[in-house]
Design a protein that fits this description.
Elements (H helix, E strand, L loop, with lengths): L42 H5 L6 E5 L5 H7 L4 E6 L2 H10 L2 E4 L5 H8 L4 E7 L8 H8 L3 E12 L4 H8 L21 H10 L3 E9 L6 H8 L12 H20 L1 H4 E9 L9 E7 L6 H11 L4 E6 L6 H7 L3 E4 L6 H13 L4 E4 L11 H9 L5 E5 L10 H18 L11 E4 H5 L10 H11 L4 E5 L13 H14 L11 E3 L1
Parallel strand pairs: 1-2, 1-4, 2-3, 4-5, 8-9, 8-11, 9-10, 12-14, 14-15
Antiparallel strand pairs: 5-7, 6-7, 11-13, 12-13
């Protein structure tokens, strides 16, 4: 955890010497020398967890991080061995297993053949004699394309460097130089550790070491209670996170090797070519005249696909027709708009499929593209396929719409470094593990901005391919003014996400 700088002497489950047990809780006046002075959620780690289906929290402590991820809808299993933490973690998580994470047989016995979307290692590996072996031990329990998030303290943080300049490298009861840390990491060596385990590193985030450098003074000023969660529940702490922490993040991002307290690394099991369970999705709203024929075209292009319709129809039989033709229909009535409907579509598909391809129900996007798009992800390893309509102006698109779309694409390139020509395409494909890696907020319009930029800026491979754009069947539901406003809002809100230049964005 971000506050698990105070992880005390622990049993073998966190790599410490056999038989060691957490010390008894000290009185408040003994704060300066005791363990577990502060327990808090690892903010950077939780922020990048996304919306996984299943999570294994390795060395879960009292379950703060796992509980935060659980609130996204995930089922969270913890592994812990410290007796004092097991009961509290059991109350916070769905399940807690008592197992020694440094033992192959103990892990196999605890987990069997179970696999998870996400493995969390929140300030655990530095307490083990062989962090690489611990990391590799759990990878057989990771789903295909599954993600791993590792948080490690930064031994190159500026207070440690200043101490070395003064000739000091003194172990402490907590912090980066915690006296139970067996291994120390810089940003570069932390990344090397993950890569040596055979994982693909996608992004590296950080928790800052600015205000935290004065932690001791702050805690003495506030007074340290018996409960290590006291600080995190205090008003000053909440005010710090609301008002100061965002500014700290901006500053620390400029020089994370120096200004980070912890490096939080997001990695994944590298994708391999394979046939994937496919969902083809559509947003439908009073599409009676086209939905039957559209489902027929999808069946021709992808006979094995599940067809999913998120339907907001209020005036015709669109949902009945779709269901009668074998589609899975989720109703969103009264209509809440494009963003919430798309959010429901994406996460519903990601809950039970490996691959989502969505398109509009009005024949503007040819379903015959589906096999080509599918091959790009299944065989060529793309994570997202963006089907671009606007490399040149299609005859079916009015000139004002074309100009607006190209202007939005130009702004995206200038602001984010992503060389797209179409940020609002209504036909895309997503590896579902990528959808689950983010917590997309569908409120408002223009959600395709986020669902394109977030993966493109966070290390995923995005392929853009040109497609035809045909005459619409039926009437447009596009809200032009709201869409324009929300496009600008989302372009601005995406600025802090990931890295500016999308070096894995490929135009074909």
């Amino acid at each position: 955890m971000e506050g698990r700088e105070d992880r005390g002497p622990r049993p073998l489950g966190n790599g410490d010497a056999p038989g060691r047990r957490s010390p008894p809780r000290a009185a408040p006046e003994a704060f300066a020398g005791r363990k577990y002075a502060v327990e808090e959620v690892n903010r950077a780690l939780v922020a990048v967890a996304g919306r996984p289906r299943t999570v294994l929290d390795v060395g879960c402590g009292i379950g703060l991080n796992g509980a935060a991820v659980k609130r996204t809808g995930a089922r969270v299993t913890g592994i812990e061995i410290a007796p004092g933490s097991l009961a509290r973690a059991g109350a916070a998580l769905d399940e807690v297993l008592a197992a020694d994470i440094t033992s192959d047989s103990a892990v196999r016995e605890a987990l069997g053949d179970r696999r998870f979307d996400l493995l969390l290692f929140a300030d655990v590996l530095e307490h083990t004699a062989d962090p690489l072996a611990v990391l590799r031990r759990f990878l057989p329990h990771l789903e295909e394309d599954g993600h791993v998030i590792v948080s490690l303290p930064n031994v190159a943080a500026w207070p440690v460097r200043l101490g070395l300049l003064a000739g000091r490298f003194d172990y402490e009861p907590s912090g980066i130089l915690d006296d139970t840390h067996l291994r120390f990491f810089t940003r570069a060596s932390a990344v090397r550790l993950i890569e040596r385990a055979g994982l693909e590193v996608l992004r590296v985030e950080q928790n800052p070491m600015l205000v935290r450098a004065a932690k001791g003074l702050i805690l003495r000023g506030l007074g340290a209670g018996d409960d290590p969660g006291d600080l995190a529940s205090s008003l000053p702490y909440k005010a710090y996170h609301a008002l100061v922490r965002p500014l700290e993040d901006v500053v620390a991002d400029r020089a994370p090797g120096l200004l980070a307290f912890q490096h939080v690394i997001v990695a994944r099991k590298p994708p391999r070519p394979r046939r994937m369970r496919l969902t083809v999705g559509m947003l439908t709203m009073d599409e009676e005249e086209s939905v039957g024929a559209m489902i027929g075209e999808i069946r021709k292009a992808a006979p094995d696909a599940e067809i999913l319709c998120v339907d907001s129809s209020t005036r015709d039989r669109t949902p009945e027709i779709a269901a009668g033709l074998g589609a899975r229909v989720l109703r969103q009535v009264p209509p809440r708009g494009h963003g919430p409907a798309m959010e429901l579509l994406m996460y519903s598909a990601a809950a039970r499929s490996d691959l989502l391809i969505y398109l509009d129900c009005d024949f503007t996007y040819p379903a015959e593209n589906i096999p080509v798009i599918r091959r790009l992800i299944e065989e060529e390893g793309a994570d997202v396929v963006n089907c671009a309509r606007t490399r040149t102006r299609p005859a079916a698109m009015p000139v004002p719409n074309y100009i607006a779309n190209r202007a939005f694409a130009a702004m995206t390139h200038a602001m984010h470094g992503i060389p797209t020509s179409d940020v609002h395409s209504g036909m895309r494909a997503y590896r579902c593990s990528v959808i689950r890696a983010f917590d997309f907020d569908g409120e408002g319009d223009a959600l395709p901005i986020d669902t394109l930029l977030f993966p493109a800026k966070c290390g995923y491979r995005v392929v853009e391919m040109p497609i035809e754009y045909n005459e619409r069947v039926g009437t447009s539901k596009l809200r032009k003014l709201a869409g324009t406003v929300w496009t600008m809002i989302r372009l601005l809100r995406a600025l802090p996400v990931g890295a500016r230049l999308g070096d894995r964005y490929e135009r074909r």
